[in-house]
């Protein structure tokens, strides 16, 4: 072999050797990065842990806070608001009743013809109306005039078989999903607006009074019989179909719970005890907090950066508004510290709330061999075009950790309510069912979340007790539930009985 050939062979060998070193280094670096990504995931998983012993402590803390909130105003992070709803539907209700559901940029008007025990809901109709943006920041009169006009238009379409008994006023259940200081079943002053509304002259005013004046201005003869929130509407709708319903929980964008309390068990209640002996309590359980909640650094930063730091801690770890963003925050840390998606952090991964819980749910439920749904969600939402199967599996595992924690804590909250009601144990000869009415998009559409919640509650209660505890999906509580509450608090009840 000539000198040139030998030289070329040496250079070639050196190149191969250098390439091998580079490949080895790359492998070491990528295995180091992967180890770091796994370390972040495992540390997060550990901090989100919800062993049964911890869930029991959370349930006990919920019960303690419920007692404290019933004892005095401001006595607990749980507001335990007295709703003034002392009669839930029995199924005997008859007649035509209306509902108005105002809680966002749209509102719904609904009417329902009730036929008593035998016929139940004879007919129901509804219409959805969007609120022009300028009315969300205008005057109180302008907003309520618009709503009253839509109501009048809807009333004008009463058809065959839908009519109020002669000589009677139409009655309305008003679901108003904004913070209200309630003073009776049909009055309450607005504390503050949320969800993009800002109408200053309405703050501090009785919202039923404002709506009534607007109806009077256009000659609509209708009386608001009940002012409620959507959780209490869900409880009413659930009770109408099943007299064993004792509580309602909403798990959607936000979360809340309401339940039926004995009026004599409410120390802060100073009025006459209602004839029924019962009072529905709006817990506002999203504001629950306890040292036993498994909070991570990601939750703490999410809270600090939120519009209401230090508030709604329970809601921020179990509700649909936040679950997707917790996943995003952990992925962002993995991208920054372990190059999970390559050498640079995808810019969109830094945008708060870009990853929504429905997208997280779709990824979590992906059963395709190559996890195609996960790949397309990462590409379409976060501009991350190419991901390995290994990376996609990490994303699914992360979704599972976040959803499991939320679902198991929701079950612990429900156990807390059952404990307060003394329904978490079997009493001698007691075969009574306790039904929890559940509604909200998170519960309805996120199958993994729902399944985990239900199995965790069974695990917490034990086989014997859990046979008597039923979770029932109660759809559209905020609509039909409000109409049913107008019926159960009708001004004509005395005449009809």
What does this structure look like?
The chain has helices at 3-47, 52-71, 116-119, 140-155, 207-217, 230-241, 297-304, 313-318, 320-338, 357-364, 372-382, 389-420, 441-445, 447-461, 463-466, 477-488, 493-496; strands at residues 81-82, 94-102, 106-115, 121-130, 170-176, 180-184, 187-190, 222-228, 245-251, 255-262, 278-282, 434-439, 469-473. With 497 residues, the protein is an alpha/beta fold. The protein has a six-stranded mixed β-sheet. β6 and β7 (187-190) form a beta hairpin. α1 runs antiparallel to α9 (320-338) and α2 (52-71) crosses α12.
Quickly describe the structure.
This protein has about 500 residues and is an alpha/beta fold. The protein has helices spanning about 5-45, 50-70, 115-120, 140-155, 205-215, 230-240, 295-305, 315-320, 320-340, 355-365, 370-380, 390-420, 440-445, 445-460, 465, 475-490, 495, and strands at about 80, 95-100, 105-115, 120-130, 170-175, 180-185, 185-190, 220-230, 245-250, 255-260, 280, 435-440, 470-475.
Summarize the SSE layout with pairings.
Elements: H1 3-47, H2 52-71, E1 81-82, E2 94-102, E3 106-115, H3 116-119, E4 121-130, H4 140-155, E5 170-176, E6 180-184, E7 187-190, H5 207-217, E8 222-228, H6 230-241, E9 245-251, E10 255-262, E11 278-282, H7 297-304, H8 313-318, H9 320-338, H10 357-364, H11 372-382, H12 389-420, E12 434-439, H13 441-445, H14 447-461, H15 463-466, E13 469-473, H16 477-488, H17 493-496
Descriptive key words:
alpha/beta, six-stranded mixed β-sheet, 497 residues
């Amino acid at each position: 072999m000539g000198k040139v050939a030998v030289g070329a062979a040496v250079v070639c060998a050196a190149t191969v050797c250098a390439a091998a070193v580079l490949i080895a280094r790359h492998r070491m670096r990528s295995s180091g990065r992967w180890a770091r990504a796994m370390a972040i995931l495992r540390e997060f998983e550990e901090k989100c842990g919800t062993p049964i012993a911890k869930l029991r402590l959370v349930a006990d803390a919920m019960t303690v806070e419920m007692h404290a909130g019933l004892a005095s105003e401001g006595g607990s992070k749980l507001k335990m608001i007295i709703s003034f709803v002392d009669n839930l539907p029995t199924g005997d209700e008859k007649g035509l009743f209306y509902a108005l559901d105002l809680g966002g940029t749209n509102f719904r008007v609904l009417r329902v013809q009730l036929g008593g025990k035998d016929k139940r809901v004879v007919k129901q109709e509804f219409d959805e109306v969007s609120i022009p943006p300028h009315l969300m920041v205008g005057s109180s009169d302008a907003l309520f005039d618009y709503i009253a006009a839509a109501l009048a238009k809807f009333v004008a379409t009463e058809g065959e078989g839908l009519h109020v008994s002669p000589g009677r006023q139409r009655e309305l259940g008003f679901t108003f999903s904004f913070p209200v200081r309630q003073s009776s079943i049909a009055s309450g002053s607005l504390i503050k607006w949320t969800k993009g509304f800002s109408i200053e002259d309405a703050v501090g005013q009785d919202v039923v009074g404002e709506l009534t004046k607007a109806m009077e201005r256009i000659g609509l003869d209708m009386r608001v019989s009940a002012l409620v929130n959507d959780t209490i509407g869900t409880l009413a709708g659930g009770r109408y179909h099943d007299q064993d319903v004792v509580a309602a929980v909403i798990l959607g964008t936000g979360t809340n719970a309401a339940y039926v309390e004995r009026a004599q068990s409410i120390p802060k209640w100073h009025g006459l005890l209602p004839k029924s002996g019962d009072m529905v309590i709006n817990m506002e359980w999203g504001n629950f907090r306890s040292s036993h909640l498994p909070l991570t650094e990601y939750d703490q930063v999410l809270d600090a950066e939120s519009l209401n730091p230090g508030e709604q801690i329970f809601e921020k770890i179990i509700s649909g508004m936040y679950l997707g963003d917790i996943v995003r925050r952990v992925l962002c840390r993995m991208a920054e510290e372990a190059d999970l998606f390559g050498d640079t952090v995808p810019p969109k991964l830094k945008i708060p709330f870009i990853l929504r819980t429905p997208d997280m749910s779709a990824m979590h439920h992906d059963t395709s061999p190559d996890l195609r749904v996960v790949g397309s969600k990462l590409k379409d939402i976060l501009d991350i075009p190419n991901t390995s199967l290994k990376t996609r599996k990490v994303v699914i595992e992360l979704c599972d950790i976040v959803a499991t924690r939320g679902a198991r804590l929701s079950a612990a909250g429900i156990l807390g309510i059952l404990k307060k009601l003394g329904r978490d144990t079997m009493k001698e000869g007691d075969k009574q069912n306790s039904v929890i009415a559940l509604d909200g998009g998170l519960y309805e559409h996120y199958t993994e979340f729902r399944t985990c919640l239900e199995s965790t509650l069974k695990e917490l209660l034990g086989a014997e007790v859990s046979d008597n505890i039923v979770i029932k999906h109660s759809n559209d509580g905020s609509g039909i539930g409000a109409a049913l509450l107008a019926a159960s608090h009708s001004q004509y009840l005395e005449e009809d009985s």
